[in-house]
Amino acid sequence: MQGSVVCVLLSLAACQALSYEPALNPKKIYEFQYEGAVNIGRGMPDLAESGVRLKCNAKITGISVQIFLLQVSNFVFEEFNGIPGKNAFYASPKLTQRIATELNAPLTFQYVKGRIVDIQAATGVSDTIVNIVRGILGFLQVTVKTTQKVYELEEQGIHGLCKSNYVIEEDEHTSELAVTQVVDISGCRQKAEVSTGMALAIEDEISKAKGDRIVASVEYVYTVKATADGGLVTKARAQEYHIFSPFTIKGGNSRLFATKSIELLKVTDVAGNPAVPPTQSRGNLVYKFGPELKQIPIVLKKLDSPLPKITEMIKRLAQANIYQVDSPTSEDIVDVFQLLRVITLEDLETLWKQLSGNVEHRRWFLDLSVEVTDERVVKFLLNRFKAADVSANEAGQTLLVALHHLTVTPELVEMSKEFLKIPFSKSHPILWHTVVLSYGSLVYRLCAYMQPCPPTAVQPLLDMANDALLKNSEEEMVEALEALGNAGHLSSIKTIIKFLPGISPKAVDLPTRVVSSAVQSLRHLTVRDPHTVQDIALSLFLTKTLPAEIRIQASIILFETKPPLALVSMVTTFLLWEKDPQVASFAFSLIKSLSRSLTPENQQLSTACNIAVKILGPKLGRFSFLNSKFLHLDWFSEDLLMGTSTEAYMIKNPKDIIPTAIMAKGKFHFIGRILQLLELGVRAEQIKELISDTSSAFEHIEVTDYAAIMKILSDTKALPKDKPLLTAYARAFGQEVFFADLKKDTFQQIMKALSPTAGKESPVWQIIQDLQKGISWHWTKPYLVLETRLIQTTTLGLPVEISKYYPTVTAITVNAKAVITPPLKEHLGELLSSDITLETDGFVGVTKDHFVFHGINTELFQCGTELKSKTPINMPWKFTVKMNVKQRKFEIDFNPVKKVTELFAVNFNVYAVSRNIEEPSLSKMTPMMPNSAVTSLPPQLPKTSTDELTEEPDVYNPQSKVCLEAKPFGIAACVEAELKRTHYVDEYPLYYLLGYSHLAIQLEPANTKKPVDKIQIKINAGPKDNTPSPRQIMETIHRGLKNSSRLLDLSSNKTAAPGLNEQSSQESLDGTPDPVVIMNALALCEGMKPDGYAAAVYYLPAPQKDDVELIISQVGEETNWKMCGDAHVDKAEESAKIHLRWGAECQSYDVDVMAAKTYQAGTKLAVAAKVKWTNLPAYMTNVGKSVEEYIPGMSFLLGFGQRHDANPANEVSASLVRESPATFDIEVKTPQLTVYRQAIALPIQMLDFQKSRNVTETRRN
Asked: Which positions make up the signal peptide (predicted)?
């Protein structure tokens, strides 16, 4: 009995000694077999994928209680590129050897209570190899809680600090635990991740909540055996998914699937004390970023001896693009970027000395060097500024791009302050503007990545603003405020307020232009501190003593803060009592435009604005677009989670001819981000007064009276010298990159240089002299428009990257030579009566390359999915121009097309890519949809049966080519297209993009009956007396606009439109007047009669109507084709008619178009229009029938009613009736159908032309 008790006690003691807490015995050697693999593709059958696989044995030897030695042996590196199930992994012996050599170096790690505390490696072991080791050791880091079967922890792992969900199942018979761990990588609080290139894209949380384009998670399954030393992982596996889509992952995606496994082979005792050479700490288990940050994912080349490679490539690219863009080599600039990013500052200086002596090489080097993107390029440019060995133009262009592409840090911002102090920066006004604005942009990007943003970064700009205010320098104040607007730093609010009247008492007497700049400088702060900006903007908007322009600008800023319903209601209440028509008109149009917005960022704001419109509409809905207006148009797809928006505004008083300010900008919306594209703005300063004061002088001069026009524009005596005539600015990605003033002195110099009385002192004179000798000018610009990168890690310790690259190469070449007879003797006005012949050839074009990469990117190997696109746009020319301005004769001669000339093309495809630094010959780019897939897979609908494990794709390959030939001239314009697509039922909309695509527009030779030596176009403007004056032209436009705006009831009913009549306007014009314009377009060949077309335009003004006749005749043997057109405009503003006939002697086909203003029920303004035809060509009839088939369905979708009527054949009529100031009715009749709709809201407020004309007449009198 006593022995039994002892046995039980011993058994209990033994059980208590067993533990599941992960641990390693320092006196043991553990040998594991490890394998890891990663594949990237769409995960669909018969589509190519790429990947890599790592195999090795790992031996862990105890050195001390917490320190263990890792030895890796039998390492094998394999690659995959092909179709799963049909292709296999293949070995890469050289890369295997290189990686194995580094893995053979000593590696130790500190292991405490199941955590990898520190990893140490020899100095020569790269970060990439250490990260692979992290992937192996990651299996040892697991948290086991035997008291809970399900638990959640936030713990560090290879992905960072992330939440893990655990589930445990214990097998009591084997003393083993099955531990399942799931990590949501997307939700990590401190993620091992690097994101670059997105600082200027505003975050949109509402859009992000609707869906995501990136999802990542990993699942681990461990088998943990309880031992006396602790829990021992005997077997484990992991599966990881990274899903990416340019739209939303629900609509098709690119998938990275990573797996790894480890199995314990044996455990033995340590013999002796293992020797460990010196090592250094490389951090814990969290992935550490290294050389992959400098490795461009679409390029993998050996980077040894970079200087000669850079020199050779720059010279080769410069030569290849010396006349036009060499599209096949345009993407080579990315190779140069890669090489430049590994050289030193001294190397940059060496390249500058080697290449700066040649104009082409110098320009290419400066344009490419900006992509070094760290302190080296800043120091290099500081050296250039200090040495002043670059021109102001070169310095401005290079600094602008360099600072915008810089990988920003506080240290680099501090270093860049020196540009503000170097005297060279102020050597030219535009260069100084560029320096100041670029520094502001640098501060903005620092604050985008660093919170709180250090106040010292923006301090130089604050000092500039305060100094300018003390000096009362308008130009310097505007300059500093524009830079502060770029910076968007929270510390700048107090300084900006000093320039805002009503908020700062010192700002009362500041010019409107300065205050406007101060208001606009709040634009980025609307996102960073919306509540403070709301208070400021609202206060300005409600201060009625401020100029209308300032209040209008404040309203824009206010609504950019996305005010809540309560604040919008407050603005609405005040607008009901607003007395300034400009403020009321603009604010109402702003609210009305936003009420229709569909983008997620305006989701709540549009609802609030909708309510406001209903309240304000009855009172403020009648302003014409002569008043200040705001326009917002947008589109957003919930399926794509993508959209665009456009905004434009005009600040204008009805009494002014031109607006005070105009602006237009566009935005691109994608998942979670808003990217502001381009914004252009002009503020008319004194030029508005100049044009208003001289408008009456233009009424009686002729369009071609150059001397009179120049004399009027030169009269600027009454304008102040210290005020600019015009101010213009440009913003890219929300950052102002350019602004300039046109000052009175500069304007007068331009007018003087262009004056007909200008002599040899004019710079234009010298240009003309050079032109007679022959000039040649060439310019190229390689530019990386976009580089965005998101780099994370995988459980294997390999970096997965999603990146986008958008490089372009632009080229302009102009060669020209002029002959002037007689040559100039004394002044420029002699040109107007001289015969001028200008021979020119050249090229304008750009090639755009787009790359999207998703996959593994290291300095040793790359594998993944890559979308590659190339878009060349080319416009070559070669022609001769002959002209005599006084005689109104113009002639253009050019050669016929002799070969295919591509004007525009888009080519893209998606590839599975594999690259290997040691064995470039093994690199592969396999189209994701191989060519064989098109023939091997029959086109069919996807199967939807639930018992099918995979879907069958629908594969198709449409091809088309359409040409429009001008046979007399031997020219054909062709459009060709080809697509290869694989459709899956759950892959919408991704399948629209993935596959081969080709679209091209090109000019080709066409077959002709006889050879063509040259094509000649002659234009003779006719007698001087027949040319309408600007006043006549404006009155004609005025009447046309008035007819179209008086809205609108286009009824084919004769009683409703008494201004129309059925009589065709075929009566001939009285007399035989001289034509206003004669034009000939002829194909010429020596010894043969010309072929082509001749046209003549006749204009007969009369007291009650204007008549215009057009006659086009085909020139050539045995041809009688003609087109005859008559247009009659009734000056009583009642009707207009056009009669068009063509064919043999204008007798084959004819169309009548008639329109008239009328009134229904005596007072309802209406417009009626009708199109009639007797005979039409077959192709026009077929097109018309096709359109008619779509009308019922489209009218139903648009909310129109419809009825089948027996309307007149060969006739279409329309009627628009203005039922109220804000709505109109419409009715359209085709031969068999009538569609109608009532109370349609006017898209814009109609212009009251009568009031406008009265104002104009009053000004004249």
From this structure: 1-19
3-state secondary structure 1059-1077: CCCCCCCCCCCCCCCCCCE
**402 alpha-carbon distance from chain centroid:** 19
- Compute the distance between CA of residue 213 and CA of residue 790 in angstroms, rounded to an integer: 12
Residue 1058 β-bridge partners: none
Structure tokens given for 508:
């009362």
CB 1148 within 8 A of CB 1140: no
User: What's the rounded Cα separation, in Å, for the pair 752 and 762?
Assistant: 8
Dist. CA 630–CA 616, nearest whole Å:
16
Domain ranges of the chain: 17-288, 896-931+954-1008, 1155-1248
Would you state the pLDDT for residue 1238? 87
DSSP string, 5-26: HHHHHHHHHHHHH-B-SB---T
Residue 46 DSSP class: T
Express as a percent the part of the chain with pLDDT over 70.
87
Which of 914, 788, 930 minimizes the C-alpha distance to 214?
Answer: 788
Checking phi first, is residue 774 left (phi over 0); if not, alpha (psi -120 to 50) or beta?
A: left
% of the chain beyond a pLDDT of 90: 62
What is the spatial distance between Cα 351 and Cα 349, in angstroms, rounded to a whole number?
Answer: 5
| Cα angle 922-923-927, degrees, rounded to a multiple of 5 | 125
Specify whether the CB–CB gap between 827 and 759 falls below 8 A.
yes
Lowest-confidence segment of 470-474, 979-983, 1240-1244 by average pLDDT: 1240-1244
pLDDT in tens, 493-537: 999 999 999 888 877 789 999 999 999 999 999 999 999 999 999
> What is the tens place of the pLDDT at every residue in 21-33?
899 999 999 999 9
Contact 796, 38 (CB under 8 A): yes
Answer whether residue 87 shows pLDDT above 60.
yes
Q: Which fold has domain 1155-1248?
A: Lipovitellin-phosvitin complex; beta-sheet shell regions (2.20.90)
pTM of the predicted protein model: 0.87
Q: How far apart are CA 90 and CA 83, in angstroms?
A: 13
| Cβ burial, residue 1158 (10 Å; 0-12/13-18/19+) | buried
Q: Which residues lie closer than 8 Å to 227 by C-beta, 6 or more apart? A: 18, 19
Candidate from 554-558, 768-772, 1019-1023 with smallest mean pLDDT: 1019-1023
CB proximity list for 353: less than 8 A, separation 6 or greater: none
Pairing between β-strand 735-742 and β-strand 775-793 as defined by DSSP bridges: unpaired
State the DSSP H helix or E strand holding residue 444, giving kind and residue range, or none if neither.
Answer: helix 429-449
C-alpha distances out from residue 878 to 835, 970, 1019, Å? 20, 16, 19
| Per-residue model confidence (pLDDT) at position 1253 | 36
Instruction: Assess contact for 447 and 489: CB atoms under 8 A.
Output: yes
Say how far residue 490 (Cα) sits from the centre of its chain: 28
Q: What is the dihedral of CA 1007, 1011, 1015, 1016, to 10 degrees?
A: -140
Which residue is it, tokens 């099918």? 948
Joined together, the tokens standing for residue 681 give 């703005």
Q: What is the mean pLDDT of residues 292-315?
A: 93
Q: How far apart are CA 850 and CA 575, in angstroms?
A: 48
pLDDT digits (tens, 9 = 90+) for 952-981: 556 778 899 999 998 889 999 999 999 887
Domain 17-288: which CATH class? mainly beta
Neighbours of 21 (CB within 10 A): 15
User: What angle do the packed helices 359-369 and 392-405 form, to 10 degrees?
Assistant: 30
Show the tokens assigned to 1006.
């066409």
Tokens 């203003």 appear where? 1157
Distance separating alpha carbons of residues 432 and 454, to the nearest angstrom:
24
Using one digit for the tens of pLDDT, what is the confidence trace for 90-112?
Answer: 999 999 999 999 999 889 999 99
pLDDT band at 1196 (very low <50, low <70, confident <90, very high): confident
Q: How many CB atoms lie within 10 A of CB 779?
A: 11
User: Residue 619 belongs to what H/E stretch?
Assistant: helix 603-620
